[in-house]
Amino acid sequence: MEIKKTEIKDLHNSINKDLPSLHKGLEKILGAKNPFAKFHIGNGFYIWTDTNDGWNNMKNASLKEQDSIRETIEELHRSLPQKVGERTAKSLLTFPDESYIHYKDIDGQLKILITGWGFKKPVTKSPKPDNEALKEKQYINLSFSIDGEKQAGYKFRILYDKQERSLVTDSNGLYTIENLKPGKVMVLTDGNDIDHTVTIAKGQNDYDIDVTTLTTIKTKATQDGQPIVGEEVIIEYRGQSFNAQTDSDGETSTKVTVWDNAEVVAKMRNKEVCQTITREDNVLVFEFKTETKEEPQPEEVEDKPENEVNTQKGQSDDIDAPKIPPIPDDITKQGDDVPPYLPFLKIIGDNDYIGSNHPVSIEHQSRVTEHNAYENGILPLSEMKAGDSIVVTDLNDTSHSEEYILNEEQEEYIFYIPAQEEQQIVVMMRDVKGVPIVCEKVGFCQKGKETIFVKLDDNGNAYFKEEELPTNVPIEVTIHGASKNYKPFVFNTEENRYEYLLQEGPSGKSCWSIALLLLIMGILVSILILLWPAFIILAEYVYNMIY
To answer: Which residues contact 464 (CB under 8 A, 6 or more apart)?
Structure first.
């Protein structure tokens, strides 16, 4: 069964041995514990195979399984040199990246299969074996907590290695980032636009950011415009009650944690005041007025002509007015029944994105329907009830979904579309020995377009946006300010390919040298043809002299 297949041009062999024969030797030495896949060369490809099914690629493994795989590889680093020698073991455990590692679980025991053994990618200056880099990297779990409670669906931004991304925590309040190097620094911007600096510590996987924000709930109470002093006010907020007493100004002040969209209720005497919490200006006002009793006024009775039609109590004097039918006695409010209402979804995203015609699916009461938003990103939902749960899934990226619990006081629900990470093209510039080229700048020019000048990084690499280098259009490359003179050369980009190695070829004869050599050979042949008759005569003369 073919496990891994890679084009020959994409990898460099680091073992100066016959690899198929080496694999046979490994099977004899290691037996059933041999973790190295069978190797052979196809038509332009390196191919690794195995007779057993059920292998999974390491990049699809859970974080716990990935840790176990790395531990197994580290154990091989310790044990393999005793069986095959240190140099051979080091070469065998050199592989291009994690995608060349496979695994499966056999009765609770993790078994690994290594493909790409003895190979590496033709990349950087002062390269180290990729498996060493693999051991140095780790994953981290980011979370944001309010009063110690991790926040699910929490939106934040991250700046790492000069790249900024907008992210959202999962239903457990976590966001996992893999392949990070210890010692690196990242900057997290929370939902309050406050920055937090995190340094990745070796072996530390969990990082929790406390985003608890406090606010003040104030009450003001007056009686006929005068402050009410020394009277109790009860504050109810997220299941907690706080008792406060008005001061000489008739005011109270209570500090609480901000929970977005939560409601605060203040009670005083026989009144309640309710409002949604904000980070500032939470002021609830009580105004009481002393009621004054009015003396009843005698009812004026107007004499009416005898011929005027008397109206009955409860009827309008206007004969033409529409009659309102009485409410039947049997129609009453139905206990726990919740009246339906019409909420709507608003689809927006990063970079001022408005979800015009954006496709989503809505799951409601085990029924899934598909919809496209209107031009303004608005999607009206069908008639629903408060307390219902809906799950919205982005049909352009089905891994992205959100669940909402409907609230009759809220009509608009935001479905946020994060920006997709932009794919970059990397062009690797190397000299004849494979060392990164050092120069002032490199020009990339396609017909009909202005030349793009870039500076190479320390590894001799240049980076482009996908649209900057259209595919199948020749690109002329000119290198400026290098220690030696490089002639311009041409290459093409291909669809769905994002890495290009441009390496200087070995020096050969120039066209002028070849032309001069051909000219000299032509002259010698011409001379030989012209002198051939004389040579025949001389040969006959010598022959006659001898014989």
So the answer is: 424, 425, 426, 427, 444, 452, 454
Is residue 285 helix, strand or coil?
strand
- 214-242 tens-digit pLDDT: 899 999 999 888 999 999 999 999 888 99
d(CA 118, CA 125): 19
Rg (CA), the chain: 41
Residue 313 has what pLDDT? 39
Question: What does residue 519 show for φ and ψ, rounded to 5 degrees?
Answer: -65, -45
Q: What span, in angstroms and rounded, lies between the C-alpha atoms of 253 and 438?
A: 66
Could you tell me where the DSSP H helices lie in 191-260?
Answer: none
The residue whose two tokens read 């001022």 is 352
Compute the distance between CA of residue 343 and CA of residue 340 in angstroms, rounded to an integer.
Answer: 10
- Strand 2-7 and strand 45-49: pairing? antiparallel
For 366, left (φ over 0), alpha (ψ -120 to 50), or beta? left
Top-confidence range, 42-56, 110-124, 290-304, 472-486: 472-486
The DSSP annotation for 157-190 comes to EEEETTEEEEEE--TTS-EEEEEE-TT-EEEEE-
Span 384-401, mean pLDDT? Answer: 88
Question: Per residue in 289-321, is it b (16+ CB within 10 Å) or e — as a string?
Answer: eeeeeeeeeeeeeeeeeeeeeeeeeeeeeeeee
Are 500 and 491 a contacting pair, CB within 8 Å? yes
**Reported confidence tier of residue 337, pLDDT bands at 50, 70, 90:** low
Cα–Cα distance for residue pair 60/335, rounded to 1 Å: 52
CA distance 122 to 47: 18
Q: What is the pLDDT of residues 397-451, one digit of tens each?
A: 888 888 999 887 888 889 988 876 667 889 999 988 888 999 999 999 998 888 9
Q: How far apart are CA 207 and CA 187, in angstroms?
A: 12
Gap between the Cα atoms of 291 and 371, Å rounded: 57
Among the listed residues 231, 221, 218, the one whose alpha carbon sits nearest the alpha carbon of residue 289? 221
Q: Are strands 461-465 and 499-503 parallel, antiparallel or unpaired?
A: unpaired
**What residues contact residue 27 under an 8 Å CB cut-off, 6+ apart?**
34
- State the pLDDT at residue 294: 61
> Do 11 and 46 touch, CB atoms closer than 8 A?
yes
Cross-strand pairs, 392: 362, 402
